[in-house]
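Quick start: read one record
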Amino acid sequence: MTQHHRVVIIGAGAAGIGMAVTFKMLNMEDVCIIEKNSIGHSFTQWPKSTRTITPSFTSNGFGMPDMNAISIDTSPAFTFNEEHVSGETYAEYLEIVADHYNVQVETETTVKGVQLVDGIYEIETSRGLFTADYIFVATGDYAFPNQPFTVGRHYSEIEDFKALTGEHYVVIGGNESGFDAAIQLAKNGAHVEMYTTSTGFGEEDADPSVRLSPYTHQRLKEVVEAGHDIQMHVGHEVIDTREDDDGYHILLANGETVVTPH
């Protein structure tokens, strides 16, 4: 049986749930979210040590009280009494918000294709056909990470950095996830080298998508002052990664090769 809705949103993460709640607050009740896994699934896939880089705190009793909130009058900080929440906790927050606002979420439903037929969107899914007047895609980047190299573990594939016990690691990338990986690995006692074309480490731009967050700067300072070893190599483009009996070979655009066991 076909389900028709005024609005269908694909993805039940922060953007999807937040958009659905906003529609409801604007008296658009016929909204359905289609989610291939569970609410906030991408957040549950974060490494166990990963936290939101923006702090949560209730700044006032009206309007938007929390930087990490997705809707007015809700707050991860107030709900869980935490500032930098984990991915698991944030997913739970999204579930609470969806339930509170009675958002219809069709979980475990995979979208196989979308086409526009006579002004109506037809959405083919693993649970049958959905149709909609309007469709919004809110799947997020974490569900579809950019993995340019066939060899090497992507940040999104790490379950727990504490389980990585090697003595030497190379991290490709010099922004938030790269530094988070380096910090966690250094805390395990590893010597960490970072290779990156550019970095937000020394940026003076106040744009939080450009500049490294104060939270990351603070954690980096703590591990360096504790004597842990992190070395940055900026201005180096990695063009390929290979693996043989000697370990991983990281090929740089300047002709150099870096060898590491991890």
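The mean pLDDT is 94.
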